[in-house]
Amino acid sequence: MFGYKKLIFILVAATALADLGCQKTTTAPTLTGVAAFTVVNAIPNTNNGLVIPVINTGSAITWFQSAYWLFYGSFYEYSPVAGNDTVYVVQLSDTLDVDPKSAGEMFYSILNLKKGGIYSLFLCGADTTSPDYLFTSDSLPFHSPTDSTVGVRFVNLSTSSSPISINLEGSPNGSEVTSLSYKSITGFRDYISNSSITNSGYLFVFRDVATGDSLASFDLAGFNNNNGVGLSDQNNGNPLVFKNVTIAFIGQPGINAVVPQSTMLIDDY
Asked: What is the number of other CB atoms lying within 10 angstroms of the CB of residue 22?
């Protein structure tokens, strides 16, 4: 993918090789494990000023054109080696003089990533000059193939926004979430995703708690694909079958906002 999709970051993921010889052993070989690490860009002014996260190194990026650019409203999942977890984020720049902890970076941390752990780094804030973030260690629910459910959680990444409520279309305000302030995140909740759910799916409405005004919405649809098979068919149904997703509330508050409030879907596992 280096040639034409402008690969994301620099990842150094290593896995120890097991001894394939014929000798017997009474102990299991030591393996170097990886973590699951999702980075989300919800910084409103980065449509043109793209950001580049760098994982598992404290060195500067040598070739910016070979790094993956994370657009506003996008995310990417990585598998860094656990225990070697320096992460920093910089803006796109055609220079070799970028260093971690420099003035041009938006995030720098040595994260405590564990082998087999699942983590999310939500980049947010008003703009690239005043960045913010939310880092979570995630525990994802298991969905049995016999249940046909999808796990959904919500996060508020709209800087300076008032608390929001979330309801299903046609249900009372706050039917799903009564109040969610900036940088708050809910747990996962199961939603039925079998053929009994029509193509309209679940329409989530995001509202200002104080006024009840509708600010944005997200339609989790497509559950009745392929003549009613929908999510219950792992081969032909909706790709979210038996998985978990995060719906993020992003953008700037106010009717004159340059980047209006909206929502985005983040695939988990």
From this structure: 5
Q: Which domains does the chain have, with CATH numbers?
A: 1-22+29-138 (2.60.40), 142-269 (2.60.40)
* Strand-strand pairing, 164-168 and 177-180: antiparallel
Token pair belonging to 38: 């999702």
Across 35-50, b (16+ Cβ under 10 Å) vs e yields bbbbbbbbbbebeeeb
Q: Which two tokens stand for residue 255?
A: 């009717």
Q: Alpha carbon of 251 to those of 14, 42, 75, 255: distances in Å?
A: 37, 7, 15, 12
State the pLDDT confidence band at 269, using cuts at 50, 70 and 90.
confident
Residue 216 has pLDDT above 80, yes or no: yes
Structure tokens at 214: 């509708």
Q: pLDDT tens-digit profile of 105-155? A: 788 888 888 989 999 999 999 988 889 999 999 999 998 877 778 899 999
